[in-house]
Amino acid sequence: MFRKFRPAAATMAVASLIALSACGSNETADEGGIAEAQAVATVPPPAGKEWSEVAAVTPEGGIVEGNPDAPIKLVEYASHTCGHCAEFSEQASDAIRSKYVNSGRVSYEIRNQIHDPIDLTFAVLARCAGPEAFHPLSEQGWANLEAMFTTIQANNAQFQAASQATGAARFDAIASAAGLYDFFAQRGISRDQARSCLAKTDTATKIAENSEKQSEELNVTGTPTFFINGKNVGTQSWASLEPMLQRAGAR
Length: 251
Known about the structure:
By secondary structure, the chain is an alpha+beta fold. It has a single domain (48-247), classed as Glutaredoxin (3-Layer(aba) Sandwich). It is built from eleven helices and six strands. It has helices at residues 7-18, 83-100, 117-125, 131-143, 145-154, 156-162, 167-177, 180-185, 191-199, 201-218, 238-247; strands spanning 55-57, 63-65, 72-78, 106-112, 225-228, 231-235. Strands 1-2-4-3-5-6 form a six-stranded mixed sheet, with helices on both faces. A hairpin with a 2-residue loop joins β5 and β6 (231-235). α1 (7-18) packs across α6 (156-162) and α2 crosses α4 (131-143). The chain starts with 6 loop residues before the first helix and ends with a helix. InterPro entries: Thioredoxin-like_fold, Thioredoxin-like_sf. Keywords: Signal. Residues 1-21 form the signal peptide. It comes from Tsuneonella litorea.
């Protein structure tokens, strides 16, 4: 169950979000303990598609894009309000998609580690258009992160008022204060559709429960945290993560 959103926490959340506070642990300096494997052959995608256009919800509640049978499985625990996640997305998204996922050798799953109510609201809305849209919407959200923080700061009173609401009304108020309705409407998800998604509070509850349970069980202490074939390799930049994928056979 997601935590109660308190007024004092709301004020602190705005300040920390605007400041783009650290949201990950220190980058792992070594190669993550990934053993060097033989190079994996590319796998042709389904006719008329790229592998990056193939996506599905996983049993863990994440969204995976790419070949479901890819021998190399990359998982990222990420927060939609994490500045380090935004930096990683800017550095890596195009390369992961074009060089690795579309080769059929690597699948790429994003799972949510929820840091705050805005993060949870975005996580629900990013699922509104189905799994195929989740990764692109997440990437565009990270690219828009500073603009979202500016909107929240300008709407601080509205944002804090959202802390007094409960259930779907709280998510509705947060989405309004953060400019998320406009953001998603510009990407084909109407306000009515978005509000309908947010009204299904069981979705938010499940995302938050998965975040808490998996973070504890898998020792995910910050974002972005990466797993390669089930091995936790910690918080990485693209410069340090890509060699690990290559050692795992994606070359």
